[in-house]
Design a protein that fits this description.
Layout lengths: L1 E7 L2 E6 L9 E10 L2 H9 L18 E2 L3 E9 L11 E4 L2 E2 L5 H4 L10 E2 L13 E4 L3 E3 L6 H4 L2 H13 L7 E5 L3 H11 L5 E5 L3 H10 L3 E3 L6 H8 L7 E4 L4 H10 L5 E4 L11 H5 L4 E4 L7 H10 L9 E6 L3 H11 L6 E5 L4
Parallel strand pairs: 11-12, 11-14, 12-13, 14-15, 15-16, 17-18
Antiparallel strand pairs: 1-2, 1-4, 3-5, 3-9, 3-18, 5-6, 6-10, 7-8
C-alpha cells in the first residue's frame, strides 16, 4: 500500500509498504481525510523530536514512520472481540498510545503516560496511508450529520476542548487567547459552546484575525500595535481576564498574558515551545496568579467534541482552508504551510475513502 513516511528533516517519502493485518481487539480502517498538524510540521522542519530514533517502548518502532494522527476513515475489518464498531462504520481515531499500567494511566491521565506516544508519530501506522490498524479503544463512531471531513478536525478540536475543560474557566468568565492558529481557534469554539462573557484574541496575522472573529472572538488585539495589557484591563472592567490560553508559545505574549490577568487568574499553556521561556515568579506570587500546562486530551474528550458538533454547538467547517491529494502532500501541504502559514488554518489530505 502507499504511505507517507517520515525519514528525517525535510525528508518525507511516499512509499510502498506492507498492508497491516487486523488482530484481536483491533480495527482496520481506510483513512478518508487527514489533517496536517503543527506537530507534523515541526518534525518535518526540525525533527526527529517526537518521532523515535530508537525503538519506541510501546510500538517497538523507530523512523522511518508513517505520518498522520488527525484522521477519519471507514472501518474495513474488525478483529476478534471487537463489539463497538463494524465494517462500514464511519469513525475517527483518538491517536494516543499509552501503556494503561503506569501511575499516570491508572489516574486516567493517558495523555501523561510515562511511555506514551501517538499513532502517526510513534508507530502503529498513520492516517497518511491506504490502510491503518488501531486498538478498538481508540475508535469513535461519528453520527450521520458529521461528515468525514469534519471528522478529521476532531483531534485538534479535542485539544482546545480539553484545555477549556481542565482549566478553572466557568461560564461568564472573560478570556484572553494568545494566537489565532488552529489550536487558538479550537479554544474559541470550545468556549463558545460554554457561554463566555467575552473572548479576546491577541494575534498578528491579518488573515488569522479574520478567522478568530469569524469563529466568535469578541475583540481582536494586535500585539505589534496595541498595548495588550492595558486593553485587556479596559475590556474587563479594569481587572483583566479570568483565564488566558497560550496557543502561541512566544515570550512577549506570555509576559503580556501574565500581566493582563486579574488577581487569581490562570494562564493555561497549550503551546509546544521550541525554546526555553522565562517567567518572573513574583508576577504570579503577589496576586496569586497560576500557570498550568495541558497536554492533548483524555478519554471522553473526543466523544464530547463529536456530540457538540452533532448538536450544533460547534461549527468547525471553515477551519478547512485547503484540500489536497496524497501525491501532492509535500509541496501542496507541508511546503505550503511553511511558505503561506498565515493564510492557512487546516489543510486536509483526501485519501479517497469518501
Amino acid at each position: 500500500m502507499k504511505a507517507l513516511r517520515f525519514h528525517g528533516q525535510h525528508d518525507l517519502r511516499l512509499e510502498d509498504i506492507p498492508v497491516p493485518q487486523c488482530g484481536s481487539g483491533q480495527v482496520k480502517l481506510k483513512p478518508a481525510w487527514v489533517g496536517i498538524c503543527g506537530s507534523d510540521l515541526h518534525e518535518y522542519v526540525g525533527g526527529p523530536n517526537i518521532c523515535p530514533t530508537s525503538p519506541h517502548p510501546l510500538t517497538g518502532e523507530s523512523i522511518p514512520l508513517v505520518f498522520g494522527h488527525e484522521f477519519s476513515g471507514v472501518v474495513e475489518e474488525v478483529g476478534e472481540g471487537v463489539t463497538r464498531v463494524k465494517a462500514g462504520d464511519r469513525v475517527v481515531v483518538q491517536p494516543i498510545i499509552y501503556d494503561d499500567t503506569c501511575a499516570a494511566c491508572k489516574e486516567s491521565w493517558i495523555n501523561c503516560c510515562y511511555s506514551g506516544g501517538f499513532i502517526g508519530l510513534s508507530g502503529w501506522g498513520g492516517g497518511l496511508s491506504e490502510h491503518v490498524v488501531a486498538p478498538e479503544k481508540s475508535i469513535y463512531k461519528i453520527p450521520d450529520n458529521v461528515s468525514l471531513e469534519i471528522g478529521a478536525l476532531i483531534e485538534p478540536l479535542s485539544v482546545g476542548w480539553h484545555a477549556v475543560k481542565i482549566s478553572p474557566y466557568k461560564p461568564g468568565d472573560s478570556v484572553l487567547i494568545l494566537g489565532g492558529g488552529p489550536i487558538g481557534l479550537a479554544v474559541i469554539q470550545a468556549l463558545k459552546a460554554k457561554s463566555p462573557k467575552q473572548i479576546i484574541v491577541s494575534e498578528v496575522s491579518p488573515r488569522r484575525k479574520e478567522y478568530a472573529k469569524q469563529f466568535g472572538a469578541d475583540f481582536i488585539l494586535d500585539p505589534t500595535k496595541d498595548d495588550v495589557v492595558s486593553e485587556c484591563k479596559r475590556l474587563c472592567n479594569g481587572v483583566g481576564p479570568d483565564v488566558a490560553f497560550d496557543a502561541a508559545g512566544v515570550q512577549s505574549a506570555l509576559t503580556q498574558a501574565i500581566h493582563s490577568l486579574r488577581a487569581h487568574g490562570t494562564l493555561v499553556n497549550i503551546a509546544v515551545w521550541e525554546k526555553s521561556a522565562q517567567i518572573t515568579p513574583n508576577d504570579l506570587l503577589f496576586q496569586e496568579k497560576r500557570y498550568m500546562g495541558i497536554a492533548t486530551y483524555v478519554q471522553g474528550d473526543f466523544q464530547e467534541v463529536i456530540d457538540a458538533i452533532s448538536q450544533g454547538k460547534m461549527h468547525p467547517q471553515e477551519m478547512i482552508t485547503k484540500k489536497i491529494k496524497l501525491d501532492d502532500v509535500v509541496e501542496e501541504g507541508f511546503e505550503t504551510l511553511l511558505k503561506d502559514k498565515d493564510k492557512q488554518v487546516k489543510i486536509l489530505v483526501d485519501m479517497g475513502s469518501n
